[in-house]
Amino acid sequence: MTDPLTLDGFDLKILAALQEDGRLGNQELAERVHLSPSQCSRRRLRLEERGVVRGYRAELAPGPLGLAVTVFTKVALATHNRDNARRFAELVRGLDCVLEAHVMTGDSDYLLKVIVPDLKALSGLINDVLLPHESVAHVHSSVVLDTLKEAAALPLPRGPAAG
């Protein structure tokens, strides 16, 4: 775990504005956070260089793309060693339908967030890809019925007042 950077109120305002709309141009961003465009640009660049802002991307709606089924899949490895974990990581990194993959504590080793067009595609993923893989012992999937909250924005710390 890394120590958090020291961010002042202006940095936090910039981050909040960018999380809300990553397409903001420097002039509009500067106006929103009450800084000059040059100060705002320097701060934004510093936040990018330090890895606080990792990138900018469009948020796509899965439905119009035919991605109707979201699933959380727990995976237990067949054996617990570095080579097996590496093989599983390579498998998962190559699967576009896996949106997130987390190493877990508890009764499973990994938790995957998966999105697929339908249950047939999910069955194919489980029965033709995951279970036959040498690194995998068990798979348990739970299909999402409804999503109550799905936030992309991180909760920002409260900092000193800016402006």
Automatic annotation (TrEMBL):
Tell me the InterPro entries matching this sequence: AsnC-type_HTH_dom (IPR000485), Dimeric_a/b-barrel (IPR011008), Tscrpt_reg_AsnC-like (IPR019888), Tscrpt_reg_AsnC/Lrp_C (IPR019887), WH-like_DNA-bd_sf (IPR036388), WH_DNA-bd_sf (IPR036390)
What cellular-component terms does GO give this entry? cytosol
Q: An example of a Gene Ontology BP annotation on this entry? A: response to amino acid
Residues in domain HTH asnC-type?
7-68
- Which residue windows are transmembrane per the record? none
Q: Which PROSITE patterns match?
A: HTH_ASNC_2 (PS50956)
List UniProt keywords, sorted A-Z.
DNA-binding, Transcription, Transcription regulation
Question: From the UniProt record, which GO molecular function terms apply?
Answer: sequence-specific DNA binding
Q: Tell me the protein's name.
A: AsnC family transcriptional regulator
Organism, by scientific name, is Methylobacterium platani
